[in-house]
From TrEMBL:
Gene Ontology molecular function: kinase activity; phosphotransferase activity, alcohol group as acceptor
UniProt xrefs under InterPro entries: ATPase_NBD, Carb_kinase_FGGY, Carb_kinase_FGGY_CS, FGGY_C, FGGY_Carb_Kinase, FGGY_N
Domain Carbohydrate kinase FGGY N-terminal: 7-251
PROSITE patterns associated with the record: FGGY_KINASES_2
Homology family: Belongs to the FGGY kinase family.
Protein name (record): Pentose kinase
Location of the Carbohydrate kinase FGGY C-terminal domain: 261-452
Keywords, in A-Z order: Kinase, Transferase
GO biological process, one term: carbohydrate metabolic process
Amino acid sequence: MKKDKLIAYDLGTGGIKASLFDAEGISHAEIFNQYETYFPKEKFCEQRPIDWWTNVCAATKKLLAHSQCLPEEIACVSLSGHSLVAVPLDKDGKLLLKQVPIWCDMRADDQIQKFFHDLPYDKWYSATGNGDPEECYTILKLMWMKEHQPAIFAEISKILGSKDYVNYRLTGRICTDPSYASGFGVFNLKKWEYEPDFFKAAGISQDIFPEILPSDSIIGYVTSEAALESGLAKGTPVACGGVDNTCMALGARGMEEGVIYTSLGSSSWIAVTSQTPVIDVSTRPFVFAHAKKGYYTSAVSIFSAGNSFRWIRDNLCRDLKNDVAAYDIMNQMAASVPPGANGVLFNPSLAGGSAQEPSPNLNGGFMGLTLGNTREDMVRASMEGVAMALRQALDILLKQVNVQNEMLICGGGSKSALWRQIFADIYHMPVLKTNIDQDAASLGAAALAANAVGLWQGYNKILTIHKQEELSLPDETRSTYYEKLLHIYSLWTDTLAKLGDKMKEI
């Protein structure tokens, strides 16, 4: 039987998407399974690794049944996984915690001072590119565990990331890849390996971290036990896979210098591929190793984009909350309002400020409201506000790397033609939507699998898979107007951040 199909898993914060690809990189079917995130205490953000595994298994069975693909046709499987996770295993390979901290868990803030007591922050950041809040990174989470859960910590034999735990359940092999390792807080981007000094600063043994293998290498084969649970055939090759940011960059055509994309989802980021990591201590872009050695994906972000637009729906448009066409109606509202939303500005920082923004205490808000403004104005302002926040982030990258003059946009928000045009006008650059849309991370993972088993030789095929659906060109008149608004937006954002700091004090 011809083995010419691939399964790519996109292990995200909200759930797992399993996609079936052919050897040409075309997606034929996909299944999404949701799982829970738990918030047991303030700053805690946890998930259950067993939920990842059981939902991978369930999604695989559904995918094979829905597509009528036989397990024996699968040439390779590969995962894209959410980052900065700490899954502790004992010497027998068993989970030590039912729930583990994921990327947004920030409980380790007290460990920051200890970590940087003898290790200069600038040295650490310049080597790792870990520009998100320091307490999010795996090494800090382990320092917290060592202090607050000493009995658990003492039993740790290995630490794994999200997709690496699923790989372990599939194959029995404990390992990671450079892209995921670069989010552990102990990976030197230039050396492309772990940095011993950072383990020493943390007081954590390097031995508990997994070996690093190439993203597109075969790490093992589906075991008999995993085959029974997942529905995959015993002996199916498993590629090492990559962290979600890198898989998405790869799937978003990011194989060459200066290729840039915007991911417009619940949160949002802009990432660029380059042969030099974009490092800046003042603005702190976050960087991951690329699937291709010698390349990096450097990104800037805002914490709330689609989430803020959803908040607008749920609070300002409550009459639409249960309407399946709610976002279409909101787009029509926004389209009825001129650029600038009749003097209303919106800051989307409803989840606080990112590392690229003036303060973590930055909160959202409207400015310029008068008795003459309408709900339609506020809906339009919310779309423009997300784009303005991301334009400020984009400017950080533009100062340090020459980007190609075309912005690919992907994620749920890319479905809106109006929003894409707003982005084109505010970015002052063409904005491209292709057929890949929300499947960039899945395509990236599939490409790793295809290379692992020799179906592909390199990644250039990704360029032919993308088909242009719409190119939104900036309107010079609107772009000039938005530049003036951006100046006001920037001043206002700085003031909001200062006020947020004062509110935090009281």
